[in-house]
Amino acid sequence: MEEQGLQTPLVGQEYGKRVGPYSKDEIVCEFKKQLYLAGPLMAVNLLVCALSMISVMFVGHLGELALSGASMATSFASVTGTSLMVSSFSIFWHCVLKLIM
Question: Where does the UniProt annotation place the signal sequence (predicted)?
Answer without folding.
Answer: none
